[in-house]
Amino acid sequence: MQRLDAILPLAGASLRSEFQYRANVVTSIVGGLIYQLTGFLVVWIIVDRFTALGGYAAEAEAASIASNLNLPDRILDQPLKTLSGGQRRRIELARILFSDAETMILDEPTNHLDADSVIWLREFLKSYRGGVIVISHDVELVGETVNRVFYLDANRSVIDIYNMGWKHYQRQRVADEERRKKERVNAEKKADALRQQAAKFGAKATKAAAAHQMVARAEKLLSGLEEVRQADRVAKLRFPTPAACGRTPLAASDLSKSYGSLEIFTAVDLAIDRGSKVVVIGLNGAGKTTLLRILGGVDAPDTGGIEPGHGLRIGYYAQEHETIDVARTVLQNMVSSSPNLTETEARKVLGSFLFTGDDVHKPAGVLSGGEKTRLALAMIVVSGANVLLLDEPTNNLDPASRAEILDALAHYEGAVVLVSHDPGAVEALNPERVLVMPDGVEDHWSAEYQELIELA
Q: In this structure, what DSSP letter does residue 143 have?
């Protein structure tokens, strides 16, 4: 261009104009080519990076995770607000598993999963390249996937760290507890002997210093001991003696529910007789939770209606704990669930559910899943309900608390409508009838249905 600028002044006006025009054309063409080449280069870099990160495989991987968690395409295209609690939990789990995070934190990941999905999740976590921190009451899951155990001992207010798998941890923990017991027994014997000797020496002025040293040594022996672990406290649960009611305290006819164009169920009829035990089964998304919400008066059906019988009192346990007012304290929730309940009576019941002292003044919103479960069950206990609607009542519970609920179910005299993936809960209930959703087909309970509980 510098040579062109030097020559142009020597040329005629016409020639200079022609030169300038051609130069502009060439510059435009070259500039366009450079722009296009730059664009191609950027696209190539992006595609190369996308491929390196497994971008083309991502959709297939996402589809595989969704399929193994029993999330069909029709579910993935729906708004979240139209999905059941179990479906939302599984979508959240799928999102976390797909994230390929360096460390995943999973709190009760097997809740709301069927048996096949639980088995798949175990294999997924076993082969996961990153770290996993998991809280779970699924013994088989932790037994197959973890290589370190952090045991939070609430009695001793410490965290014991075991760098080993679950089965070895269980044996080592028992051994550690036995060791602490023996150490305490031996130390207490030595401390008693020292105190006795100090008492003898203390009577003589010449041996007072030695006596003082013996007492100090005895105290040092005991102060260095680890606390012996006490048995875990367990909620003491008994469902209420049901209030008197008519022969059929709860009935419903022609119930249907849809969310937009998605039909959940239609034309469902049922009658819950006094003291009857009914299990509701169906695949995830079949409307089990929705049915209980309608029976409990939380949601309204699109068609049909509820027919309350004489003396009906419903105790509704919601799997998402919607019956708890998170803005109120534990104690306020209890008192509101039974207007005739005094604060002293409420505290007594809460104590049996492990809410003691200042725990009763905690806002319900800060409670853990297990604590909310205990509070919701405590609220049912004081309600005097004669029909219990229980939606996954054993979720978030430790094995000992779960055993308490199962025993309470087995001895409850009122009517129960149960939704659960827990075969033990269904077995404890010993149901007489089964309602299969979404068709609303009623049948007598049989062993064949028991096999479907984990698959539902």
A: H
